[in-house]
Give the backbone structure.
Amino acid sequence: MSHQSFHERRKAERMRDAEFRGEYERARGEIEQIDSVVRSLDELRETNGTSKAALARRIGRNPSSIRRLFTAQSNPELRLVVQIANDLDADVVIVPRRGHRERQGRDAGHARVPAA
Amino acid sequence: MAWQVEYYEHGDGSVPAAEFLDGCPRKIDAQFNAVLDAVAAAPPPKFSGGGKWEAMHGSMGGYYEIRLTGPGREQFRLFCLLENAAPAELKRRGLASPSIVVINGMRKPHRTTFTDRDYRKQVRALGEQHLANMPRRLAR
């Protein structure tokens, strides 16, 4: 027997409203993209065998700012994300979606955020 | 392992966080739900919540907040506690799994601050009541 929590019941009820559902799905997509960027950086850091403290030293940041970033205890700052990517020899890349979401008048192709 | 999202229930049967969400603009309610579900799906210490989920400090240490901006830059906050322990202890607390417990929410105009009295009355008093309940009293 599956037990639906208060949270799930309340949400399911609100999902019947198109405005709520649309915003929920948009927000989940946005959150997933941000989370995926930060988690990818953390995985790359681990793969490279770089400790958070060493990473902080190399990019001239306080170790606590790196620890907070990777444990969702602060809002990720784009400049810090780019600094870390640069240190780990990676780029932060924006990939335009193809197909029906492509908008007229927008540039096609890849926009690369330079790891300054 | 995904966590559960639970809502603190007051002694009089009211659910402060649900009442707060019911009074929010629909899109803000939807965004709060999206952050809660994202954090529950990838719980701490993983990075989760798209930067909208943050640990609080000082007198609010131990609490987490979801920070959203609404129409007219109005600020919306939802305050939560995390419940994680060994299975036997979770069972004693009446929890089936580690949980995010939503305590209450508050809203304020842009460029204003909550006072410590606000936090104490609207959040910590309820959070302390929640932690004193054994098993926990949760909305069903």
